Protein: DNA-directed DNA/RNA polymerase mu
Amino acid sequence: MLHATMLPPMRKRQRRTEGTEGPRYGVEVKFPDVRLYLVEKKMGATRRGFLAQLARAKGFLVEDVLSERVTHVVSEQNQAQELWQWLRRQALNNLPTLHVLDIGWFTDSMREGRPVTLEARHHIQDILPEASTHLPVVVLSRYACQRRTSTENHNEIFTDAFEVMAESYEFSQCDGQCLAFRRAASVLKSVPWPVERLGAATRLPCLGEHTRAVMEEILQCGRSFEVEKILCNDRYQRLKLFTSVFGVGPKTAEKWHRGGLRTLNDALEDPGVELNSMQKAGFRHHGDISRAVSRAEALALGEILHQAALGISAHAVLVLTGGFRRGKEFGHDVDFLLSTPEQGKEETLLLSLVDSLRRQGILLYCDHHPSTFDINNLPGVSFEAMDHFAKSFLILRLEDRQVEGGVQRPEGQHDGRSWRAVRVDVVAPPMERYAFTLLGWTGSRQFERDLRRFARKEKRMLLDNHGLWDKTKKEFLPAEREEDIFAHLGLEYLEPQLRNA
Ligand code: CTP
Ligand code: MN
Ligand code: MN
Structure:
């Protein structure tokens, strides 16, 4: 029955032209930017005809013949390698921009009656990155929350340079350019092999003229002269040095630079410089806390905090977040989330924890921020703002004997101390906000930024560390686990290890 109504026009059309096979029977083209091609192999001619018919009835353009006009190739049950070999043989110029998709994307789109947002799981990846004359094909989203970014960075040569550029723009308060370089670095971190030709970058999102120019220099000369110039720049060097002190931001650093200060000692000795208590602690422990914290040290601190928390309440929950949760081996601090199922007790718990650390004699510094959380003020309008939960920024003393292999020391030096200072952040949300805070504090910063941007621009939702607000439904969406938040956003769940954007 189905076949009888469908096959004749198919055959007629195939004979007639190679042209567009758009919707017929009076159905309008709803998605002119999407041109589908269904791979017949494995799918079979009958099913292919049926699916094409279905898509056309829903307003999709379906091409019978594979040409450069096709934007989305859909395949069912074909081996990726075989499929890509076949695609390369077609010598299409648009191969690098072609979306090669699994049938799952097609069926989802049919169900929704529109082309659904492309996700990593939809793509059939080209397995041979160095394959033939064509460039490695990875389809990368503009949003970091739709890219898989492990800790393995194959493009450090570019991302390090971009980081210097971003920092230099940050020092000059050029937020737009700073963000452009941070975005570009984040995209390159998710490319699973070294980019070796600029051509390979043409289809990567978020790479503008300036970022490409820096890449081109590096590809041609092995280094970027623009970046080297910045690295030699006096002002850059001083701002970099001053901001390496805990508590000194770009504004203070700029002021010191303008005042003619050159070294950290200048800042300590200048009678005109009034240090606040955070900066004093920053100077006192500068050597230690500007040195990376290892995973072994982070785990040792986790153990210490966990014991202290359990000593206060048997219900205390302590979770490692930040870079270490993402699988990093080193970090600039250690981040923890502390909570308790006892409603309204989380802030007291945090204060008691800090107190316990003080009594143990390992609290070197504490900057506590009481909770200003008020459910009625949600969601916040600002996306970058700190959350309103109680939190403490600490410096703790970590003993050699508490860490497997001892604490990190500057290479070849032993100053006779048996301990080091480490920066530790602890945030204490109420348990019902746990998932949002965990997601927010796991980072990376770029990942969080793009999650929020994605929610706002693509889903009309507002996300922050407190909650998720649906502007259409005018309601908060509940979440017990991070997975719930990804699901609300229609995003594929990404493990923390893949959020190193
Ligand atoms: N964060 C936050 N509010 C703060 C401080 C941090 O939401 N007041 C979030 C940041 O957005 C980030 C995460 O906590 O996503 C961890 O921050 P940070 O420790 O600065 O960065 P890491 O990714 O852990 O990197 P590193 O290993 O260098 O510490
Ligand atoms: Mn951290
Ligand atoms: Mn931190």
Summary: Residues 322, 333, 335, 425 surround manganese (II) ion (ligand 3) (CB under 6 Å). Residues 295-312 form the longest helix (18 residues).
